[in-house]
Specification:
Elements (H helix, E strand, L loop, with lengths): L1 E13 L2 E3 L5 E5 H7 L6 E6 L5 E9 L6 E4 L11 E11 H6 L3 E5 L5 E5 L8
Length: 126
């Protein structure tokens, strides 16, 4: 049986651009993509913490070190510069793979600088 698990995420990244007339996608700083394990053209699920929008698109590379998170094309209607977003990728795996798998969790500040890295989300307290 195949399971779909969280592969990686950029947690609370900050949108720097919303480009309606750019070919659809989400441009992400190449350094952030590398650290998180996001591949170019990989499907992304984006959760906008600021306005509650949830949508999917695909990743494209932005210049390394630029700290760009650009929501492009039709998705630009769902995010604005300064919005905080969670960008996730998921992966299908077997029960055996899932039993030992740990996601890559990258935590960002408002300048899209990495403030923390992890591989587990603590249990939510009551």
């Amino acid at each position: 049986m195949q399971l779909t698990l969280l592969k990686c995420k950029l947690h609370r990244a900050c949108v720097t651009h919303a480009e309606l007339d750019y070919e659809g996608s989400c441009a992400i700083d190449e350094d952030l993509m590398r650290r998180a394990g996001i591949r170019e053209y990989e499907q992304l699920h984006i959760y906008n913490v600021t306005n509650g929008e949830r949508f999917s698109t695909y990743a494209i590379r932005a210049e390394a070190g630029s700290r760009i998170i650009s929501i492009n094309g039709a998705a630009a209607h769902k995010a604005s510069p300064a919005d905080r977003v969670i960008i996730c990728c998921y992966a299908a795996m077997t029960e055996q793979e899932a039993a030992v798998f740990k996601p890559t969790l990258i935590y960002c500040n408002e300048r899209n600088e990495i403030t923390g890295v992890g591989n587990a989300i603590p249990a939510q307290a009551a």
